[in-house]
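pls design
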């Protein structure tokens, strides 16, 4: 065995707590130690998996991973040493464990959102104690801690993951829900407060003149909906106006209906 290899082997440290892990990360030795995860027996691990960790964060969906990297700013492992890397496209996950977790969830068509622990140091440190789980990513379902990447891999292998995590709705089901979200629903570029194209601005002016309440959906924020709704409605352009889940038409149709005096009765559901 080479001398260098002997030195590395001698530097192996068993990490028994999150505090010890953080302390070791702060060490600046010439040959950093190789860190091992704590090894839990099955009963202890299962207790950790089932730890009740009820989250106070708003709008947390049923399945929610706390990831080391996520969002429009991409952090690589260099982040741990105070250096940021943004060479990859927005939304791409650099850090390996978080990337693997998301890949597994996406592969199983699981509906989830995420929280970037790098964006809030208080959450990053506090959640380790709150959940009694020292590493990230952490996956929660309905506010209950399931575990980290290793546990998720075990659940995937045992076919349990699909029964624990909620599935994302199929696109057609999602579009049906969206088109029925309000009695009058407008799919447009932008929103009520700010139209982002001339056609959308014109249809907003027409709807506002009727005094009828309506909701909007910004297709620029969801490419899946933007493309899928064209097929769902068999209408290739935007904006698209729906009343009680049924397509009325685009800007030209709405203009004709207004000129003919038919628009208001349709919006009120009288036709």
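designed seq:
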């Amino acid at each position: 065995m080479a001398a260098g290899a002997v030195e590395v082997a001698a530097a192996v440290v068993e990490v028994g707590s999150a505090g010890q892990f953080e302390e070791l990360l702060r060490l600046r030795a010439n040959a950093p130690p190789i860190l091992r995860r704590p090894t839990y027996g099955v009963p202890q691990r299962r207790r950790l998996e089932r730890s009740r960790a009820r989250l106070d964060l708003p709008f947390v969906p049923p399945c929610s991973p706390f990831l080391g990297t996520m969002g429009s700013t991409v952090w690589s492992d260099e982040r741990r040493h105070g250096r940021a890397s943004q060479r990859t496209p927005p939304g791409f996950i650099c850090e390996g464990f978080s990337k693997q977790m998301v890949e597994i969830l996406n592969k199983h068509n699981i509906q989830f959102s995420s929280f970037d622990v790098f964006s809030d140091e208080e959450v990053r440190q506090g959640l380790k104690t709150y959940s009694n789980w020292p590493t990230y990513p952490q996956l929660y379902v309905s506010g209950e801690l399931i575990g980290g990447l290793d546990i998720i891999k075990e659940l995937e292998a045992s076919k349990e993951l699909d029964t624990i995590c909620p599935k994302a709705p199929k696109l057609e089901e999602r579009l049906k829900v969206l088109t029925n979200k309000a009695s009058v629903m407008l799919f447009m570029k932008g929103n009520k407060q700010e139209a982002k194209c001339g056609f959308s601005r014109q249809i907003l002016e027409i709807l506002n003149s009727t005094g009828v309440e309506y909701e909007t959906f910004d297709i620029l924020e969801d490419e899946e909906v933007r493309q899928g709704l064209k097929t769902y409605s068999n209408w290739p352009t935007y904006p698209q106006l729906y009343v009680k889940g049924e397509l009325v038409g685009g800007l030209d149709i709405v203009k004709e209906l207004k000129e003919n005096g038919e628009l208001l009765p349709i919006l009120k559901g009288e036709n």
